[in-house]
C-alpha cells in the first residue's frame, strides 16, 4: 500500500475529526472529516529559521518520515541540527469505553539536538476557531486562559451557544468549547484561535506535552433526552477528561503503543503488511465515525454519522459493515450499535413489521428520517417523530429497506453474542425480533421490488444479495433464540436459492437472471 488518502490527527467523534488530506503533514491544510476547512498549523523555529511541519508549507516538505498506526500519527522534522518528532494520539481503546469516549487528543513534541550543539528553539501549535462553528461566517467568539491542573490552558467558543441546533450531511459542530492545554510553555487565545508556544535553549533532548479537547455540552438528542458522552454518565465534565489525560499522559501513550502493536500483529497473522496498514488506517476512522453516549437508562448507545449520505444517525446498514472491528475487540459495542434501532422500532410511529433504516439525522435521534414523507433541508432539524401516534403517515413504505435491515439487525445481534456480548439486549426485545424473522420468512427468500443498502441503484425485484442476507438472518435468529428449527428453515431456503441461481460460479444479481453481482 503506497499511501493513505488522508492522515488522522484529531479523531474522537463525528464532530471532532480533523485530517491531513496529503502524503505529508506539511503538504496541505487540514480539513474536517466532512471536507470543511479546519486549518491546524505547527511551526518549528531553530536559530531564527522557521519551517512549517503541520499545514501547507509553500517552501517544500520538511517532513523526513511519517507513520500512521492504529492510534497514533507520528512525523519527524529536522532543521539546523534539531530534530522534532510530533505525535498525535487518540486513546481509542475498545476495551475501555470511558477513555474511548473522552474527546481528547494527546500531542507530544519530542525535541533533540542531533549535532551536540545548543540551539535557540521555538515550537508552536495553532488551533483555528473554526473548529467551534459551522460554515464560513465567523460568529462572535469568546476566549479565555487559565491554569488547569498545573497546565497552561485556554478555552474558546461562540458567545451564543446553540447545542444540538442543526442536523445534516457535510456540516460540522456549531456549538461547544475547544480546549488546548500544555504542560510546558504557554497557551493563549489570539484573533484566530488558540496557540501553544514553547521557546528556549535546547542542548540535548526535551519532551513537550499538550492536550486538545472539546466539550460538546450535549452530544445527541436521543428521543427527547439530551444525552452526553459515555464518560459523563456519572457527572464527569470535560475538565475531568482533560485532567485524566494530563495525569496519565505517558501511560495513555504507552497503551496506544500496545494497542498499535496488537492490531498490527493481528493483521499480519491474517494477511500482510498492506493489510496491516489498512487496519491501522481504518481504526481511528471507524471510531471517529461514531459517538458513544449514555442513554437515559444509563445504557451504551454507539451511534454512527453518515457522510455523503444524508448524515443519518444510527443507520443499521452503516453499523453492519462497521462491526468486524468491534466483534473482535469489544463485542458489547455491537449491542450498543443495535440499541437505537431496537428502541425506535418499538415506538408507536414505527408501525411496520420490519426494522428501521436509521433513528434520525445526526445528532438528532428523534426517529427515522430516511423515506420520511416531509422533507427537511440539510442543516435543519426533523420534528420529533418518536412522539407521533401510530396512525400517522410519516413514512413512505416504498422507500424502506425491509429485508436489508431485518437481516442486518439479526446478524449483528447474533454475531455479538457469538463473540462474547451479553444476551440481555436481544432477550429484552424478543417480540420485535420475532416480527423481523417472520418478515424474512415471508418475503426474504424471493424479495419483491425493494431498495437495498445500494439505494443509488434504485429498486430491484428478486435481489439475490437480499435473499442471501435474509437466509443468514433467519439462521441467526435461531442462534439468538436457541430454536434450531429456524436454522433448518434457513438451510432449506439456501438450498432453494442455490437451485435457482445455479452453481456455475457466476453470481447473478437477480433471481430471474437479470444482471450480475459481485
Here the CATH topology of the largest domain equals Beta-galactosidase, Chain A, domain 5
Structural class: alpha+beta
- How large, in whole angstroms, is the Cα Rg? 25 Å
Poorly predicted tracts of residues: none
Distance separating the two termini:
23 Å
CATH class of the largest domain equals Mainly Beta
Helix content: 25-40%
Tally the helices.
11
Strand arrangement in the largest pleated sheet: 6-7-8-9-16-13-12-11
What fraction strand?
25-35%
SSE topology sketch:
Blueprint: E1 7-13, E2 16-20, E3 31-32, E4 41-46, E5 49-54, E6 63-68, E7 72-79, E8 82-89, H1 97-100, E9 104-113, E10 119-128, E11 141-148, E12 151-158, E13 177-182, E14 186-190, E15 193-202, E16 205-215, E17 220-222, E18 225-227, H2 238-247, H3 249-270, H4 273-288, E19 290-294, E20 300-304, H5 316-329, H6 332-345, E21 364-365, H7 402-418, H8 424-428, H9 430-443, H10 464-481, H11 484-501
Parallel strand pairs: 17-21
Antiparallel strand pairs: 1-2, 2-3, 4-5, 4-10, 6-7, 7-8, 8-9, 9-16, 10-15, 11-12, 12-13, 13-16, 14-15, 17-18, 19-20
Textual characterization of the structure:
The structure is a single chain. By secondary structure, this protein is an alpha+beta fold. The protein folds into two domains: 7-261, Beta-galactosidase, Chain A, domain 5 (Distorted Sandwich), CATH 2.70.98; 299-501, no CATH class. Helix content is 29%, strand content 26%. It contains eleven helices and 21 strands. Strands 6-7-8-9-16-13-12-11 form an eight-stranded antiparallel sheet. The protein has a five-stranded antiparallel sheet with strand order 5-4-10-15-14, with no helix packed on it. A three-stranded antiparallel sheet has the order 1-2-3, covered by helices on one side.
